[in-house]
Description:
Layout: E1 2-5, E2 11-15, H1 22-35, E3 43-46, H2 50-61, E4 70-73
Parallel strand pairs: 3-4
Antiparallel strand pairs: 1-2
Amino acid sequence: MFRAVDKHGRLIAFMQSDRRNTNAAYRVLLKVIKAMSLYPPSSIKTDKLASYAKAILRLQNEGFLSKGVEHRTSKYLNNTRSGNC
């Protein structure tokens, strides 16, 4: 399961997936970026799942996400408001 919330804790996107792999992370992050198209993120906070870093790099290479976006990780974010954007 993926949840994305903004800095105020409001739900931006939600996606149920039986796997937490790079393709699933890519899909949910792309959904978030499209939902926030008027206010693109300056940073993305995630748990330490390696798939996020790969998905963010792919989104940057494809031009969906600015190269200047900071990716911050915390081991415990999956237990609170995971995927903060």
